[in-house]
Amino acid sequence: MAEGGPNQESVPKDGTQSDLHLLECPICLEQLHQPRCLPCHHSLCQECLSSYIISEVSLKRDTATTFTCPVCRTLTYPVDKTKNKEKWAEQFPVNKVSTKLIRMSSDSTDGHYCMPCKKTKDKMVLAQFWCKTTQCLFCESCKLNYHDIIHTNCDAIDIGTSTDFLPRTETNSKRCDKHKKNITYYCADHNSFDCSKCVTTSNRNCKDVGITEDLCETLDKDSNLEERKMKEAADSLESLVKGFHKYLQSIADDKESALQSIDDIEERFIQRMREMKKEITDDLIVKYKEETENLKTICQKCKRLKIAMQNTMESIATARQENDHVGTIILYQRGQTELDAWKYLVKELRLTWSTVSLKHEAEFDGTNLNFGKIIVQKQQRQLLDVPCIPKSLSKCELQKVRKVKIKTESDRSDCIARGIVIAPDGIIVVGDYANQKLKLINTDGNIVDDLKVNGNPWDLCLVDNTTVAASIGNGVHVMTVTPSKLTLSNVINIGKPCYGITYRNGEFVVSTGKKVYRVAKDGKTKIHKGPNNIFSLSLNHLNGTLFFPYYTDTLGSTALGSLSTDNLHKDVLKVGVVRVAYGVDVDREGNVYVCGYGSHNVVQMSGDRKNVRELLTSADGINKPEAISVCGDKVVVTNLSDTLCDYIHLYQLI
Fold first, then answer.
1. Which side of the chain, N or C, has fewer Cβ within a 10 Å radius?
2. Residue 172 counted as domain residue
């Protein structure tokens, strides 16, 4: 752990005062102590790095062999992963440059001295003026008696009042550890800095070897574009940070509003409702803390990366000013790493960022004495003001990733996959109607578990990241999902054959032929009856709208219908481009995907319902598609044709 910040008034003897911010640990924000350099060129205190590694690895499996840089999130491998996690930090090389700068900044108390006095009188007289033309420092006497007499056409700068004073130093020479000669070459084949002897011995056969000064000149020509990108990236991160603070305040306001609503009921039923009040208040605080911690974590990532980018930009400017060729190259490499980290972070937020509101829903009717419940509502948001954001899913095309065989040696019949879901971590659960099984497929496309069930699976839905529900027989089967195991956790009897299923506001919604029911704790309630059978359901998480396809081939009839949260029905799509609609799903932007079982295609309808297009057709190998699931930019589809029924197809929206 760092032991105090650097002395702000001390100046290293080689004039590198502006490099002192490089000596700050990004974790403890103090001067580096025993600095260790990661492969991404970020340096941290050994103790801070060790504590960070232990903390991050403890959140993963015991067999974890990697960690991410706390600044740019680059995946990092230890030198020797077999050693204890406590020893990983000390395996990384010591940052000798930072160590030298720390020592020099701590030991030096020198100021800027008059050059003529030092050379002619051998006296150390503090300088007061700087001449850019001659690149020399003068005391007041030498300025009047020497500089102003000879150099009449240049102005000297008062270094005591000017903020632009920065003497240009000679090139920083770094020496080869092996031959003790100045480093003047860079080998791109080995990504190494070498002296003249290294080039003639070790790098004799390398094709891409150049002088560091020439490489710096090339980098300087392209630097404006990179710096502008880094500035835009840093500005976008600043915008994100402000947005996070705004939404944090909004959630805090929601919390206060919910607490006030709870307190209003407490005033009327204080004696009988004290225990219930405590229970629901605790629930509110837990949900509030959970959501705010998530936002704070994302905000902290943005802050760290923003600070790192700003420091890198300042360091590049300083290195160019000081003709530090090696430092310039290293800083450009570090800047590229940070840009890649920024692009990944923005892409991640683009896929997952949603605003959250906390609402208190009161259920008091004059006889039922309770405090109601706390509702967490999430709405997907687009980062429209951030550059380099991937295009909308409504404008993407499908690219095939792989075809996965779902038939196992124990299956007695060809597979019929009428329900499928893909989770955010890429794990797929598919229902095999013919063999009465639910099958778990990992991210490599391998079946890692199958669960025999009592009935034929139809539709599937995702309850949360670790829970999947399926309509089987006369009920709903709820399964717990791990990366390698499916476990039946609950069965809810509906009393009617169940086909389509989805999950909304803590309750299941199922179809039983032409009818759609809401399944609550106190039983089922019919909310819709359609003209034709409904074999699948899906939910738009942005507004709570239900979508269901109708199994019909009659031209002009309804192929897809919707039901709002207040049970208002709308005809969304007519039979035409889609015939005998079967599977349906909705992506994070509200775009609806429909499987045309009779038209042998998969159709996407935009969230505003203005644009309908075919994403997949029979020309793409689609034949009688039955089920579809969309998660992020991943799409998985099943087919019922004789040649394709034993396979599912994984695509990516690009």
1. C
2. no
